[in-house]
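If you are new to this repository, start here. Below is one unmodified record pulled from the training split, so you can see the exact layout before writing a loader.
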Amino acid sequence: MDLASGYIFGSKVGTDFLGDVRGRRRWLKAFGVFQTQSGRERKGGVIERFCVDLCEAAEVELRESRREDKVTTEGDDDAGYGTKPVVYEQLSRRIEEVLSDDDKKSVAGLEEMKKKKTETIASELLDHLIAGHESTGITLTYVMYELSRRPDITKRLRAELLSNLSPTLRFPSSSTKTKKPDDGSGRIDNGLPKPSAIDALPILDAVLQETLRLWQAVPAPQPRVTPYNSSLSIDGYDNIPGGVTVSANAYTLHRNLDVFPNPHAWMPERWLEADKERRQEMKRWLWAFSSGGRMCLGSNFAVQSTSLPPFLPDG
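And here is the target side for that same chain:
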C-alpha cells in the first residue's frame, strides 16, 4: 500500500502503514468490510472517503509545489527522499483540459468543476489503489511462502542481491537521504539501485516469474464479449457469432504441460535453465497480467514494487 499510494499520490501524501501500525489496522478493518459491501453500501464510506482525502491532499501538494517552483523531492536536508504524485498529477491535468470553458467562467462553475474533478479522480484512483496493493500483497505472500520452503533458493537470491546491486539493498541505509548532485544534472540520488539493475537479476526474476505463474493473483477467467454483427475465429474455432462471452483462464494456461513440465511445482529453475527459445515460449504463455489492449496497465509497476520489499537484506 505504501508503494502504491506513494506512486499515485506522492510520498508526502501517501500512506506510511509500515510505520503507522494503528493506521494500518484501521485500514485493514475498513477494507475487510469494504470487500463484502455492494456498490451502494460503499458509497461515501470509509474507504471512498479515504481516497478522496488523499486526492485533496495531493492537489494541495501540487499547488504548493508549483507556487514555490520546486520539485517535491527537494527540501530540508533531513527530509529524506520523496516522490511526486505521478499518477494524480497526470490525471488531474488531463481532466482540467477537457472540462468545459463554461465551468471556468464563474465562481459557482469553478466550485462545481472542483467537486466534479475530485469525484472523477477519486473514483479512478481508488481502483488503482486497491489493485496496486491487493494483488501485489497476494503475490508477495506466496513469494515468502515458497522461499520459506526452498532455503537453497533463498540463499542464492540473497547472495545475488548482496553482490550485484549498487548501492546494496539494506534498510536502514546510510545512503537513503536525498542528495543533490554536483554535476548540475538535476537528478536526485535516492540511495536505491536503478530499476534496470534490479530487472537484470536472473534469480530474482525467476522467483517472481515462477510465483506469478503458479500463484497468479487473479486466476479466474477474464471474460470478453465478441464483436456484435460479425463472426470470428479463435484458435481454430470458427464462426463464433457476435455477442458471445469468451474467456481465458490464467490458472489453466499456466499449467500447460507442453510449456511447463511438472506444472504444479514451484520451480524457479525452469526459468534459469531454459534456453532463449524456451524462455520466450514460457513468457508467451505467462498471463498473470492478461494481454492486449485491456491488460493490466500497472504491470511494470507491479513487478518493480514486488521486486523490492521481501528482499531487503538486514545486514
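Two things worth knowing about this chain: The first strand starts at residue 224 and ends at 225. Residues 227 and 242 are 5 Å apart (CA to CA).
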